[in-house]
């Protein structure tokens, strides 16, 4: 279904607002309003079409309910990861570790909207996850939504390379905010991120490292910090079989 944007004038203020027609929470009560008609936005880069680069869209095991009336199992069951580890394709190979990497990325940018992820079918089960649809990122710089880190805090696993990179970016001489600030200087749309958003990256990075440290205290370093590439022990499934299991 092609999304449509519907515009209307706010009745409580002289603002122009819009909302979209979509599959999820797209209603007038969740409209985005300008001040009076200007607002911050994001740009999206589109991948090649599915006929050129076929890919699968897979529900995130830690997706949100998008409902006021119910909650997902991971939100009420602290041992939810144990069941995820028993299910294909998370019971073998690197998929679960890649999901945890993705949750760290989402926490750093404040993205709560990771309901699906995608993989290119050409590379099979061990293909990297595509971090599509990050438009909900960098919203509230003052709020750190810890539930985004549920895959990390519940599974207590992290790639060694990921941890080493996070530790490097936490050092004063290679701080994440400084690296991002320097990188964005070259962007035609600079500054792209406000200073408060850049500083939020450093604050959130420290919280990620504290979650890892709590896991290490509970289970030990050898159980928490894993090697980067785990050879699959389960026979890979075809794209058709993966769709049937979704």
Q: Class by helix and strand content?
A: alpha+beta
Give me the number of helical elements.
Answer: 9
Helix content: 25-40%
- DSSP strand content: 5-15%
Shape: globular
Largest sheet: 3 strands, antiparallel
The count of DSSP E runs of length 2 or more, i.e. the number of strands, is 7
The Cα radius of gyration reads 20 Å
Unreliable stretches: none
Strand order of the largest sheet: 1-2-3
N-to-C span: 20 Å
Kindly report the average pLDDT value: 86
Order of secondary-structure elements: EEEEHHHEHEHHHHEH
Domain FAM20 C-terminal: 9-225
InterPro entries: FAM20 (IPR024869), FAM20_C (IPR009581)
Main location: Golgi
Subcellular location: Golgi apparatus
Summarize the structure.
This protein is 35% helix and 11% strand. The protein contains nine helices and seven strands; from the N terminus they run ββββαααβαβααααβα. The two termini are 20 Å apart.
Give short descriptive properties of this protein.
11% strand; Pseudokinase fam20a; FAM20; disulfide bond; 7 strands; alpha+beta; golgi apparatus; 246 residues; two-stranded antiparallel ribbon; FAM20_C
Q: Care to describe what's here?
A:
This protein has 246 residues and is an alpha+beta fold. 35% of the residues lie in helices and 11% in strands. It contains nine helices and seven strands, in the order ββββαααβαβααααβα. β1 (4-9) and β2 (16-21) form a beta hairpin. α6 runs antiparallel to α7 (195-219). The mean pLDDT is 86.
């Amino acid at each position: 279904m092609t999304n449509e944007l519907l515009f209307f004038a706010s009745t409580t203020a002289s603002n122009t607002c819009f909302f979209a027609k979509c599959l999820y929470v797209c209603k007038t009560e969740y409209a985005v309003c300008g001040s009076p008609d200007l607002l911050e936005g994001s740009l999206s880069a589109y991948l090649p079409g599915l006929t050129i680069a076929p890919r699968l869209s897979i529900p995130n095991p830690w997706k949100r309910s998008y409902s006021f009336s119910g909650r997902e199992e991971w939100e009420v069951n602290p041992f939810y990861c144990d069941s995820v580890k028993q299910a294909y394709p998370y019971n073998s190979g690197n998929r679960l570790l890649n999901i945890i990497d993705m949750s760290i990325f989402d926490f750093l940018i404040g993205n709560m909207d990771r309901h699906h992820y995608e993989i290119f079918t050409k590379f099979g089960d061990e293909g990297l996850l595509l971090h599509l649809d990050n438009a909900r990122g960098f919203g509230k710089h003052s709020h750190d939504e810890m539930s985004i880190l549920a895959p990390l805090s519940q599974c207590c696993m992290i790639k060694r390379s990921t941890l080493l990179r996070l530790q490097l970016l936490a050092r004063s001489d290679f701080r994440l905010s400084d690296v991002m600030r320097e990188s964005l200087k070259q962007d035609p749309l600079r500054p792209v991120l406000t200073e408060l958003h850049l500083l939020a990256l450093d604050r959130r990075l420290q919280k990620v490292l504290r979650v890892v440290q709590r896991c290490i205290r509970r289970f030990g370093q050898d159980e928490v910090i894993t090697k980067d590439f785990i050879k699959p022990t389960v026979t890979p499934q075809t794209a058709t079989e993966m769709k049937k299991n979704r």
